[in-house]
Amino acid sequence: MMRLFRSSLVALSFLIVRNVWAGPVEVMRTPDNGIQPQAMVGADGRVHLLYFKGDAAGGDLFYTYRKAQSEGWVAPVRVNRVSGSGLAIGSVRGAQLALGRNGWVHVAWMGSSKAQSVRLEGRDQSPLLYARLRPNASEFEPEQNMLKVAGGLDGGGSLAADAMGHVAVVWHGLIGDAKGEQFRAVYVRESTDDGGVFATEKAVSPHGSGACGCCGIKAGYGDGGSLQVVFRSATQETNRAELVIKGTMDNLPFRVVRSAPWSINNCPMSTSALAQGSTASFAAWETEGQVWWEKFEATGNPSRKMMQPEGGKGGRKHPALAVNSRGEVLLAWTEGTGWQRGGGVAWQLYDKDGKAMHPIERRTGLPVWGLVAVVAASDGSFSLIY
After folding, report:
1. Is 4 in contact with 75 (CB distance < 8 Å)?
2. Can you name the residues that pair with 64 across neighbouring β-strands?
3. How many angstroms separate the CA atoms of 11 and 356, rounded?
């Protein structure tokens, strides 16, 4: 179904998602047996949810939401017009969700082999697709390809939007005949009218930083239209530091505000996370089998040392972050996952000073290619979806 039905009868099938409260965190499975949830909370308290269903090499994306203080999700709407054009393989290439001005919902994803390819540099390539849902509309607008100059899409892309109408589609790629991850750069196409028109992509990463080919990327807007991006660099084959960069499109390249070194001679297929608080932003990433997180002031500068959850490292991947109105931070991640192998999820809650408030909690049963999403409600409570 392409339309979002609002009748209570249709919604009944989405009301019963087993929600369990683990201390201060509501824990639930992704509705409809979906995977790779992406969740955000809107200004009205709605929890917006994007997820994937179907063949991991070519499935579909679905969007739903639940109102504040409600446990029931409305019936979902399919995002992609071209059936099977979503991609979930590898857990790094999944769809991304962003909420914009006045209720606009934005989605971007790496197209599968069933999507219309894009021709760049004389060869067909995988597209980076974008679609948006108008406020109060019942279906998404048709998806459009965002790659115009820089191709070589591998680790998927990211998406950011803000209350001023900015929308940024972000990815790392290559231009021309360049080959090798050391020649990759982070590219951004930005819109200032809620995704109506996008400027041609521009490279924003520092020259020579490269980008780890099959690692994911995450972007988010801060105050004043500044854009923050978290990605894994790649130089000299083994230097794969996670970089946090920040800037605006009229002052390129962005500056590095954090470098987290990792010496490894292969791609770790990692992802990262961003969360925006009232006065600061928070970033999380993977290094050497451990997930790390850090708080950044509005200027972009780190405000404290890098933090990690308690316990030994090893097998911790794909972090997710949420921050509530009290400044408390929920960090979640996956454990035991691998190529075509599921695992479990774990999480820990921190106070506004970065001190752990509770021991690590865990759940098993994360599906193959699964991810975890976390959100903070307006009342300060947290929800975890996997």
Report:
1. yes
2. 49
3. 38
